[in-house]
Write a structure and sequence with these properties.
about 400 residues, alpha+beta, four-stranded mixed β-sheet, 12 helices, 20 strands, about 25% strand, elongated
């Protein structure tokens, strides 16, 4: 806590004060803006000077034990605002929400997340901001996003989405004094992370221009995968996990069995394109099962484009439990993204064929042998999947 009330209800902020001045302030009495309980000044040599509750406090808004990283990043963002003469409020308590963002810049609630947080609490706080007209800007600290080859569940639920740059995530490095945008985020079937990034040094550019970059900035990103390798590795991995009786795979196999499918004898579409649908919790095979059950009713029939989109949207609306919470992304955006991915996969695998009156649905052989699948993988081993933002993905 970097700010507190004095006896006469004046907000006292410790930022930009010398250690000597802060020592002089310790003779006064101060109170928490949220619970009104007494707080004290801590002016040690390690952490940034701050206010702290006494040991027996039960305040649920101003938590104790902030790291040096968190306190320092708050100070750095404040200096950035002051350098640009941006109107800001540090640790502004919002009584209607019973929350306080680290920094409030207009209606942008900056939250610097340097430690663990339950997903339920993340969802609650994010939606509370949104319902009261604030835009939450979650920024990951180094500990939360230190493993750049994968995303833990919390980091994934801190992601945003823009048509310009796809899924993206903010992070800040207090030691390097850098703010980074990780964008065009994708995962393979093992949830290995692929991402492009753009980094700004603190104070180097307009903070608000950077914050609005995902929706207003111009950038093009392209990534090239050897699709034969992706798919072959995916198929081999499913085989191995099924043989080892991997618990997660057994759950998927049970669902497939109920629909008269076998994990390693599925139509090619189920394995294609070897990338995981990013917003799906766990395997995206369960989502594909639902879509496949739907389109098989139209096998060998022609369906209009609007009718096809309508039935796919309705099916996706029933599957919310298959997706991460992703509170920073409206559910309609998640559905639209998934619909676009699944639709393109069906077209690429020639299960949807364009005809003058709409789409011809042709599912082909639904019960394949392993040798047939391996032959298909051999045929496409030299093809490439090129994913891009903001342009459409292509196969070459």
């Amino acid at each position: 806590m970097l700010s507190a009330y004095s006896n006469n209800k004046e907000i006292i902020t410790l930022l930009n004060l010398s250690r000597e001045k802060i020592e002089q302030l310790k003779t006064e009495h101060y109170f928490c803006p949220a619970c009104d309980h007494p707080v004290r000044i801590k002016n040690g040599k390690v952490k940034v000077p701050h206010f702290s509750h006494y040991n027996q406090s039960a305040c649920s808004v101003y938590s104790e034990g902030e790291t040096i990283e968190h306190l320092t990043l708050k100070e750095m963002f404040v200096r950035w605002c002051e350098q640009e003469d941006l109107s800001y409020e540090l640790e502004k308590y919002l009584p209607a929400l019973h929350q306080r963002p680290d920094i409030l810049i207009g209606n942008i609630a900056v939250e610097i997340q340097c430690s663990s947080l339950s997903i339920s609490r993340l969802v609650e706080r994010t939606r509370s901001y949104q319902e009261h007209g604030y835009i939450p800007l979650w920024i990951c600290g180094k500990k939360l996003f230190s493993r750049h080859h994968s995303l833990n569940e919390l980091a994934k639920n801190l992601c945003y989405y823009s048509e310009k740059i796809g899924f993206y995530l903010w992070s800040a490095d207090w030691e390097q004094a850098e703010l980074t945008l990780h964008f065009h985020i994708e995962e393979d079937w093992k949830k290995m992370l692929f991402a492009s990034k753009k980094t700004w040094s603190f104070y180097s550019e307009s903070l608000l221009n950077i914050v609005h970059f995902p929706t207003k900035g111009n950038i093009h990103s392209q990534r090239k995968y050897k699709i034969g390798e992706l798919l072959h590795s995916y198929y081999s991995d499913l085989n191995k996990k099924l043989y080892r009786r991997d618990e997660k795979i057994r759950v998927i196999q049970a669902e497939l069995y109920n629909n008269r499918f076998h994990l390693i004898q599925l139509p090619n579409w189920f394995y294609y394109p070897g990338l995981h649908i990013f917003c799906c919790r766990g395997s995206d095979l369960l989502l594909k099962v639902r879509i496949w059950k739907l389109v098989q009713f139209f096998d060998q029939n022609v369906i209009s484009h609007f009718e096809l989109i309508d039935v796919l949207e309705k099916e996706l609306a029933k599957g919310s439990e298959l997706f991460y919470e992703l509170p920073n992304i409206p559910y309609k955006v998640i559905k639209a993204y998934c619909l676009n991915q699944l639709f393109n996969y069906l077209v690429d695998c020639q299960h949807l064929i364009r005809v003058p009156t709409g789409w011809k649905v042709s599912l082909g052989q639904q019960d394949q042998s392993t040798s047939t699948i391996l032959e298909w993988l051999k045929r496409i081993e030299n093809n490439y999947l090129i994913t891009a933002t903001p342009l459409k993905n292509v196969i070459r």
